[in-house]
Every structure is written in C-alpha cells, then in structure tokens.
Automatic annotation (TrEMBL):
This is FAD-dependent urate hydroxylase HpyO/Asp monooxygenase CreE-like FAD/NAD(P)-binding domain-containing protein. It comes from Clonostachys rhizophaga. Pfam families: NAD_binding_9 (PF13454). InterPro entries: Agnestin_monoxygenase, FAD/NAD-bd_sf, HpyO/CreE_NAD-binding. It comes from the Eukaryota. Residues 50-201 form the FAD-dependent urate hydroxylase HpyO/Asp monooxygenase CreE-like FAD/NAD(P)-binding domain.
Length: 454
C-alpha cells in the first residue's frame, strides 16, 4: 500500500499565491501561470524522483538509496513496475548478457543485497544461480530478478521509496531555486532536487522512406507490418502468421534483433508448423559484426552479435556456409548496400512479393514527460529542450536557435537504455553501453556526483 504521505508537505497557500492567481487573469497562457503558482503552494518535497521502472530506473533507485540513506524519501514513477520492456515484451529473447552479470547487478548495492538476503528461496536469484554462469539465458529470468528487487523495495523500504503506479505529466525547473516541481497524473505535486529520467526506448516503427513510397505508389502491394516486439516473441509470432497460407516475410536490417527475427522465422518454417513460410532478408552489410573477446576487454561489446544470435549467424548466415545451410532454403538474402539507386531498385523488385515486413533498424527514446523551465524574470514556464551528456548522465539545454548550452541543466539526470553511457574501447570505437550491468556500472560511477554536486 502507498504511504499516506512522504517527505515534507506544505499545505498553506501564501497571500502571494492568491494575489498572483487574481492578477494573472484568464486565457491559456495565464492558466499555465496560475496552475504553476497554485501547485507551488501545495507540494510534497522528496529527495529524488526517478521516472521509469525498468532495469535502468531500478538501478537508479538502488544507487540513490545507497547514496542517500536516512534522508528524505524518493518517489519512483512507472505505469506498471513490471521490469520495463524486458518484462513486458522480451521474456522469450535470449540474452546477450552472461548470467553472472545479472547476478552481479543484483549484488551491486547494499539495498539490493539486503533484499536478496530477506527473500525466501527459491526466488529469481536462486534460479539464475543454478544456470550456466558464463552463458546467456532467456530474458524472462532477468525480468523476474527485476520484479523481485522492485517488490523488495516496496516491501522493505516503504518509508524511503514511494512507488507511484502512473505517469509524470509535467516537470518545471525553477531557475531561481534549481528545484523541480513535478506533477503526477493523479493530481499530486512534488518538489525535488533530483529528477532522474529512465524512460526507456521502443523499436523504430516509422516506415522507411522506400517502404512508404512503395505503399503509396502501389496500394495493392501494401504489406502487413510485423512489429519487432512480435517478431522477437516466438510464441506470439507463430500465432500472428497464418500457418495454412503461403507467407513471405521481409526482414529489414542486420542488427542483433534482426538476426533473432531471422532465427525465429527459420525455426517456424523448419519445424513444420509453418511449411509455407519464406523470408526475404534485406541488409546493407555483406558481412556481420561479432563481439570479440580481447585481453581484458571486448571489441564491439555493444554493437556486435553475441550469444545464441552470434552462434546461429556463424553457423548459418556467413557467406561461406550460407548456400549449403538449410537456412538458405527458407531465407533469401538481398544486399541493398550498393550505389546508383541499387537499394531502391531491389526493394521495388522484391517487396511486392512479400506479405509481411518487419523493420529491425534500431530503437528510439520513449516520449519524455513535458519538461519546462521557469526563468527568474518570467511568470510563465517555457518548454525546455534538452540534449543528453552521455559521459556524465546530465543534460544540456538547447535554445531556440538550436545552440547547446555550455552548462548542465540543474538537477536533471538520465540513465538506462534511453540515456546510456557513451564509452570508447581501446581500439577507439565509440558505442552506447546498453545492458543491465552496464547501466549499474555507469550509475555507480555518476550517482555519487549527482548527490554531491546536483
């Protein structure tokens, strides 16, 4: 159950606030001013607000609990508290993270360790302990670990963390005090010195220009789009494609996700459940990229294929084995990376023969809460445009001309898959560090700085 109140509550409405409401008059702009001033007069103060309940948000809450013991409570906001997209969509996906690193994630901060000690066995952690530690596992196991830790925070830290099952509607930075006033969807208002965005990412679904052009020019060849989330869940994918009718799925991309989709589709056709299923694979890359273990580091750690996807690709998709592989009887590869309009001509020639298409071309950040700033000389908060600093987890403001600010936005931070750390490996490759342990490692480095230098 949610505590009745947390933090410091101010319920008095100052004469200044009432005078401001009367003076500002009517209209949409003045309504914004009235609402902001009214909310500022009745708020609950908390130490930090973390937005997002996935692995990144969970790691942020754990580190803040570890760094701010005994102070004001935190507010943690998420619509579901169900381990983010990993728990909701990707339980059947084989991880590219070793099991040992999931357990390392759960052992990284004292609050998590206490939850592990207090949770009766068997539990999600003990299940992981019984698996091969140097291999991956289904992400459902990692999601269950997140759920256990999330529930453990609710059960064992009720006075230090409130979990609000809902959304942040608006967050306003007061430049005079450098505090954030955050409005929730249930009407409550909080102020805080730390607003942490761990809001997650989703597959890019906007059709590629060539797909849209083809659909617009020849409506009769309109393809049924397959969402990447569906294609990554074999149990749902098999129900989505009619096994009794011929089907040809176009797969666009050569990412880790694309290889997993190809693997899922091939297994459906090869198993006999969908004997009429065929695949057209459109890729710009003649060769695939794999993560490579070096002396103390991993080349292409964040962009190369790993785990089951890497092994299947080596055995089935590489040029020297593809033609002799049974995969070639189901999958036809089309190299679209040529010049002089080759890509467009290939799509125009081959896509009309497809019944479905799935794009595995990356992820985009989920929509952020409405961020605003109230400048010292202004009554009306204005929209705040930001850019992430991937080395510190902070943000810089972008002004109306598109220029980036030289100083960080006060007390605003980001982490998780929406705002990952940027890392450079010994070979000079710059990548975004995405993964449970990578989120935790980044937050263990930066949260002490967020706390000491907001």
């Amino acid at each position: 159950m949610r505590p009745t109140s947390i933090g410091r509550v101010s319920t008095s409405r100052s004469p200044l606030a009432f005078r401001a409401v009367r003076i500002l008059g009517s209209g949409s702009n003045s309504c914004e001013r009235r609402c902001w001033l009214f909310n500022a007069a009745k708020t609950t103060t908390v130490e930090s607000i973390v937005v997002g309940g996935g692995p990144g948000g969970l790691a942020a809450v754990g580190n803040l609990l570890d760094s701010l013991p005994g102070k004001l409570p935190q507010l943690w906001v998420d619509p579901h508290f169900a381990a983010g997209r990993v728990g909701a969509k990707y339980r059947e996906v084989p991880s590219n993270t070793k099991v040992a690193l999931f357990l390392q994630f759960a052992d990284a901060v004292a609050p998590f360790r206490q939850i592990l000690e207090k949770t009766p066995a068997p539990n999600a952690a003990t299940v992981l302990q019984k698996l091969a530690q140097d291999k991956g596992c289904e992400l459902g196991h990692a999601a269950d670990l997140c759920l256990m830790l999330t529930e453990g925070i609710r059960e064992h830290y009720p006075s230090q963390v409130e979990q609000h099952r809902g959304e942040v509607e608006k967050a306003v930075l007061d430049e005079q005090t450098n505090t954030w006033t955050v409005s929730l969807d249930d009407g409550r208002v909080f102020t805080t010195d730390r607003l942490v965005l761990c809001t997650g990412s989703s597959p890019i679904t906007s059709p590629l220009p060539i797909l849209k052009q083809l659909s617009d020019s020849t409506p009769s060849t309109a393809l049924t789009p397959l969402h990447l989330d569906t294609a990554l869940k074999p149990s749902l994918l098999s129900q989505t494609i009619d096994p009794s009718s011929p089907a040809t799925v176009g797969v666009v991309g050569a990412s880790h996700s694309a290889i997993l989709v190809l693997m899922n589709l091939y297994k459906m056709a090869h198993s006999g459940s969908h004997p009429n299923l065929r695949v057209k694979w459109f890729t710009r890359h003649n060769s695939l990229r794999y993560a490579e273990q070096k002396d103390g580091w991993i080349l292409y750690d964040n962009t190369g294929l790993k785990g089951d996807a890497a092994q299947w690709a080596r055995d089935s998709l590489e040029q020297e084995v593809f033609e002799k592989s049974p995969v070639s009887r189901v999958v036809t590869r089309f190299l679209t990376g040529g010049e002089n309009g080759a890509e467009e001509s290939i799509y125009k020639a081959e896509l009309p023969g497809c019944t479905h298409v799935v794009q595995a071309i990356g992820y985009k950040r989920n929509t952020l809460p409405r961020l605003m700033v109230k400048e010292k000389s202004e009554f009306t908060p204005r929209h705040l445009t930001i850019e992430h600093d991937a080395l510190t987890g902070r943000f810089r403001q972008i002004d109306h001309s598109g220029e980036k600010g030289k100083v960080h936005v006060p007390n605003l931070f980001g982490a998780g898959i929406a705002f990952p750390e940027m890392v450079t490996d010994p070979a000079g490759n710059v990548e975004s560090a995405v993964g449970f342990w990578k989120f935790m490692r980044f937050l263990k480095r930066v949260v002490p700085e967020w706390v000491s230098k907001p």
